[in-house]
Structure formats: structure tokens, C-alpha cells
């Protein structure tokens, strides 16, 4: 995936390309195993090479639940710039067809739009998201991004299903000068009718793929001239 969140994490997070039937059945069988406590976080991905761990769990009323623990190569300013560059989130976030800034409220608050690719048998999804930035301070030691879906912010489009919840917190902790630890947790309600296999596939794969996309985008940004100031405050 070459296109969060954003939490994180996206994230984080809408619907995905259709997996094979055998993959879907295998995951559904795993879901009904009696030895799994669905209310507790279950480790799904443990990529020790890239320092990415992702988890899932089931909670009533929260249809896709995810947690991410990842280490990104790059400094905090670059990681923040990638997240704040809303119009280009579509180039690294999981199955995102469109992303654009809707309104800048202040240097620490904004609204933005995202549209997601769904399987061919299902309508695509879109989401209106409200983001609040808690800038980094030396005392705190991290920057935090809190994202909540606001489905009624814009009218629903006839050919799309509006995501009802895409709520997450993403904490960015600098680890020296060239690494950032990302801890993200959240849940997604994609709205409409979503088959079990699709929900399973998304929550197992979207957070991990999004972290891979984020790392690629950070690598690209690190080699570009960054003359313009960040649109939002990442540090007090």
C-alpha cells in the first residue's frame, strides 16, 4: 500500500480490497475459536524488522477496533508534516481514493474529508473527520492527534456510504533525533452493511499497511526541500 488516522491508524479503518474466500473463511474460523477472548487485545502483526505491532479486539458497538505500536524512522517535524499534509494522505493511507482539507479552525484544529475504496460488491465509503492537535512540549514529551468522525458535517453523497465513526488517538513520541514512536488506538464504524469477512480483513490489515505507507511517505519527505512552514503546530 503506497498511499494515518492519518490514526493511525488510521486508523484505521474503512474498507478494503476483496480478499480470497479461503482467507476470509480462515479468519472467520479464527474469530470463533473458544480460546480467544475477543474483549482483550490480540496481536495480529509483529513485524520485528520494521518495528510494527498491530492488535485487534471486539467491543460491543465498536465494529472495527485497532491498536498500533510502531517506530518510524524520521524526526517529529517530518512525521507531523506528513500527517498535516491532508491533501496527500490519499498517497499513503489505507485504500484512500481522496483526501482534502475542509476547514482550518486554528493552528491546532481542522476538519478534513476522506474517501475509501470498498470491494466491488459494496459501495465506497467517505468520512468527515475533526482533528485536534496537542503540540509537543518538553515536559510532556510527545505530540498527540485526536480524530473523531463528524458524519453530519456535510450532506451524504448518493453513491457513497458515510462512515459513522473513525475515532482514534495517535501519540507521537520522539526517540532521539531520527525516530518517532507511534502509539495509536481507535475504532471504526464504516456505516451501512459490511460483511463479517470484510470487517475481519480490514482490522487485520489496514493498520499495518497504513504504517508501511506512512514510513514510505516520511522517507520521501525527508529528501524533499521543505521550505514552507507546517500548516498546524506540532510543537509549542
TrEMBL record:
Keywords: Signal
Entries under InterPro entries matching the protein: START-like_dom_sf, START_dom_prot
Signal peptide residues on this chain, from the entry's feature table: 1-24
Tagged with keyword Hydrolase: no
Name this polypeptide is given: START domain-containing protein
Organism: Agitococcus lubricus
Amino acid at each position: 500500500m503506497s498511499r494515518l488516522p492519518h490514526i493511525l491508524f488510521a486508523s484505521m479503518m474503512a474498507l478494503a480490497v476483496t480478499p480470497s474466500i479461503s482467507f476470509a473463511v480462515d479468519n472467520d474460523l479464527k474469530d470463533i475459536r473458544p480460546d480467544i477472548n475477543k474483549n482483550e487485545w490480540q496481536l495480529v502483526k509483529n513485524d520485528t524488522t520494521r518495528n510494527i505491532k498491530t492488535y485487534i479486539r471486539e467491543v460491543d458497538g465498536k465494529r472495527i477496533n485497532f491498536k498500533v505500536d510502531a517506530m518510524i524512522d524520521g524526526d517529529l517535524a517530518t512525521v507531523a508534516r506528513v500527517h498535516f499534509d491532508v491533501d496527500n494522505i490519499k498517497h499513503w493511507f489505507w485504500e484512500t481514493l481522496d483526501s482534502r482539507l475542509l476547514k482550518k479552525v486554528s493552528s491546532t484544529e481542522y476538519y478534513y474529508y476522506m474517501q475509501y475504496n470498498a470491494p466491488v460488491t459494496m459501495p465506497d465509503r467517505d468520512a468527515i473527520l475533526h482533528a485536534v492537535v496537542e503540540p509537543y512540549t518538553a515536559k510532556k514529551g510527545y505530540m498527540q492527534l485526536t480524530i473523531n468522525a463528524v458524519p453530519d458535517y456535510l450532506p451524504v453523497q448518493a453513491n457513497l456510504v458515510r462512515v459513522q465513526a473513525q475515532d482514534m488517538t495517535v501519540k507521537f513520541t520522539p526517540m532521539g533525533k531520527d525516530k518517532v514512536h507511534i502509539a495509536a488506538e481507535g475504532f471504526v464504524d464504516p456505516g451501512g452493511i459490511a460483511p463479517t469477512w470484510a470487517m475481519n480483513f480490514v482490522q487485520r490489515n489496514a493498520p499495518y499497511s497504513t504504517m508501511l505507507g506512512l514510513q514510505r511517505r516520511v522517507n520521501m519527505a525527508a529528501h524533499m526541500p521543505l521550505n514552507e512552514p507546517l500548516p498546524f503546530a506540532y510543537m509549542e
